[in-house]
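Continuing the series of single-chain predictions for the mutant panel. This is the parent chain; the variants come on the following pages.
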Amino acid sequence: MLFQSGKEGSIYLVNRDNMGHYNPNNNDQIVQFIPYVMGGIWGTGAWWNNSVYFSGAYDAVKQFAFNTSTGLLSTSPVSQSTNTYGIPGPEPSISANGNSNAVLWMIDSSAYVSNGSEVMHAFDATNLATELYNTNQNAQRDNAGGAVQSIVPTVANGKVYAAAAYQISVYGLLP
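Parent structure:
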């Protein structure tokens, strides 16, 4: 299966080996179409443990569960953040220890329109209402840098990397 979102805030679940071809009338040729479940999306989602995570413009970060028995996604979010984020909407990344200790990372770069700083956020991936951390908690130490559009946090070697205007920030456990 392949999941993708559209700029209008819809989710498309497609058989990647038989994508269904173009149908001008509806989306019956694909596995699942979930229309307008979030704000517009100009990026991609993240996958972890049979869940897909998206964040649309002016909307919350949302988790949709994949049912392995039916081969379909939940049609409404099973979890979502309490805050909403501006345009273009953050693009999530996941860090985890296999099927446990998952953290959803995202960068709110909506301040790029005002030349402000982006903000890195970390959420419990099993309950997006629980924000574990954000760089505004200690902005002097953790400032993510000047906001640039559509930044995806990169998770590697136990750290999270975030690009910004003239800066790359590396986040990890404090000594």
